[in-house]
Amino acid sequence: MDNFIFRNPTQIYFGKGMENKAGEAVSVYSKNILLHYGGGSIKKSGLYDRVIASLKSSGVEWTELAGVKPNPRLSLVREGIKICREKDIDFILAVGGGSVIDSAKAIAAGVPYEGDVWDFYEGKAQPEEVIGLGTVLTIPAAGSESSNGTVITKEEGQLKRPCGSELLYPDFSILNPELAMTLPPFQRACGVADMMAHLFERYFTNSYPVELTDRMIEAVLKTIIHNGPSVMMDGDTYDAWAEIMWSGTVAHNGSLDTGRLGDWGSHQMEHELSGIYDVAHGAGLAALFPHWMRYVMNQDIKRFVQLAVRVWNVDQNFKSDEETALAGIEALEQFWQSLGLATTLSGLDIPGDRLEEMAGKCAGETDNPQGQFVKLYKKDVLAILEMAL
Amino acid sequence: MDNFIFRNPTQIYFGKGMENKAGEAVSVYSKNILLHYGGGSIKKSGLYDRVIASLKSSGVEWTELAGVKPNPRLSLVREGIKICREKDIDFILAVGGGSVIDSAKAIAAGVPYEGDVWDFYEGKAQPEEVIGLGTVLTIPAAGSESSNGTVITKEEGQLKRPCGSELLYPDFSILNPELAMTLPPFQRACGVADMMAHLFERYFTNSYPVELTDRMIEAVLKTIIHNGPSVMMDGDTYDAWAEIMWSGTVAHNGSLDTGRLGDWGSHQMEHELSGIYDVAHGAGLAALFPHWMRYVMNQDIKRFVQLAVRVWNVDQNFKSDEETALAGIEALEQFWQSLGLATTLSGLDIPGDRLEEMAGKCAGETDNPQGQFVKLYKKDVLAILEMAL
């Protein structure tokens, strides 16, 4: 197990009706906040009204900034920073999914920073101070509600880049599984794929031994695989959504990184996909991950066998690790397909004419490799993209 | 899944040599601290010298209070409170196992409290303010290094009582598995039993469904069962100790309580045992838990079947849940016995002449029941103690 330092300070409010505590939770930190969200869905569902009522009853004043889109844009972040500075706002309440929360994190880091907020995403600077942040999660997927990361897309150049900092853990997050039950089926499936991808990124490591976190990651995966099909259905799916929503948070809150170094190469490749084609992050991951797995599996075939046997209940072929490992990868593809997700780029209507460009933006020919389990240079990224077509 | 609110703010420093960060970690909070520990073992091992050197190099001044014993005593807690008040100390560094940390937590809560610190343990008051607390853990067992609880023994009346509060999470804890490698074998075994008991207390719940936390608890149990025998050996057992030490923290840091209500009846019964006979907490738990399991298993036999099959790899008898469940309990007894632990009271040289007294101190005939999975009144506690003889 690798040495590590870990602390996740986010306070979680989980369960039915918890959004009604938003005002109370916010008022510990501030009475003058930015309310940040996406479009009309939170108004249609009534969530907006409940959050506003809760803010009012706690005497919290707010300024609204709506309009966050999937793959959240730098331009809106800049607008948020401007508003907060003008109005002396020191706390953001993000109501939405990962995109809204990531956008809010960028604003929170940008407000006290004298330079350009994009510096954080280009690795030119690290946040040293942030304003406060709380969230009301509506889409279980990205894990941003209790993670130290944010991903923003700069329109110019179609660049989608991540930033991580201990300061970016939200102060609190409100998770009510009921809020997810009205999501369109495609978004539900993308969420399931996204959280599974977060677990795979952690699972594939060269750190050894890491038995506890291996087994815990497997536990979360099995829970998602068991409950994923249930949340695709209509009717009273609260119990299944509760398992899925909490799994999505646990998958990405840092606790399963302890003592191991994750990979994250597939995430970097996906960022190039959705930077150009604006595909949903979970959909992009589903189209790439199985192909990445086949490309890298000989780095540690036993780890792929372990995943296949323990998580996918593959009947182990003791004479052929490769056959066992591949059966696990096929089981993953079948599972994602059963949720209605494509496991190829062509299934996402992504043509093959810009693979070279994406590979080049992602990694260098001899420098800037992506991934830790296996370092991927441009030729590797290109090979995986071609396999994924 | 039950609604829940959860936050664990303890910063973890995990791995080889991490005790050398003690001074740096402390100095964020204070330059005038109480150094609290047990006896000579940390001096013999050289840990004391390393911690002192680290404090010095960070300019931290300290006052020492040694002498914490297993089942830590109220009298020493009172002494610590007095010292802290006299010297304006606002931070405690506890170097030791669960007893030292529990004693430090009591002092931390007692210093700013105007009443008697025992009020917290009698349920007469709740801590509303505490002074800071950091730990250097030497015995993986109690989980107190990242929990919200403390257990103290009042000599008068031989009363051992717990107190829990969100304020009692340590600010930081330093976990170096190397420090555990020199423990005597009996203490190693007791630690393994203690952390397994913490997981069982959470596992046996009437909250339903709780699939994610079920599977995560099982993951931690399997890791402990796999690595427990290795840490009983001599030689380079760092890797196994790392799994065990981190398992002990995860078992009790609150993350596995999320959405479920634990039982804790066996812990209450054990407190009566060690209150009177001063047995090691883990040893007392090993002598009681299997008997509690047999007494309550029909409350939810399927849950015992699940534990037997998933954790103990029992070959399920699909026609007899009882047979499967009992085979799991027997596997637990055999495992603890294989570590050198007794699974009966007589194995601990505890006679049968004070069972009635212990049962009466633990629970009332018609009020003050213990446990949540099954409520235990005096007659139930007595029946379990008799089974355990």
Overview of this protein structure:
- Chain A is 45% helix and 13% strand.
- By secondary structure, chain A is an alpha/beta fold.
- Chain A has two domains: 169 residues, 3-Layer(aba) Sandwich (Rossmann fold); 206 residues, Up-down Bundle (Dehydroquinate synthase-like, alpha domain).
- Chain A has a six-stranded parallel beta sheet with strand order 1-8-5-4-2-3, sandwiched between helices.
- The longest helix of chain A has 21 residues.
The CATH topology assignment of the largest domain in chain A is: Dehydroquinate synthase-like, alpha domain
The second-level CATH architecture of the largest domain in chain A is: Up-down Bundle
Q: Which term fits the overall shape of chain A?
A: globular
Proportion of residues in helical segments of chain A? 40-55%
So what's the oligomer here?
Answer: homodimer
Number of helices of chain A: 14
Low-confidence stretches of chain A: none
- Number of domains in the coordinates of chain A? 2
Secondary structure topology:
The structure is a homodimer of 389-residue chains.
Chain A (H helix, E strand, L loop, with lengths): L3 E11 L7 H6 L4 E6 L3 H4 L2 H11 L3 E5 L8 H13 L4 E6 L1 H13 L21 E6 L11 E6 L4 E6 L7 E4 L9 H19 L7 H21 L6 H13 L14 H13 L3 H16 L4 H10 L10 H18 L16 H8 L15 H11 L1
Helix pairs in contact in A: 4-5, 6-7, 6-8, 6-10, 7-8, 9-10, 9-13, 10-12, 10-14, 11-12, 13-14
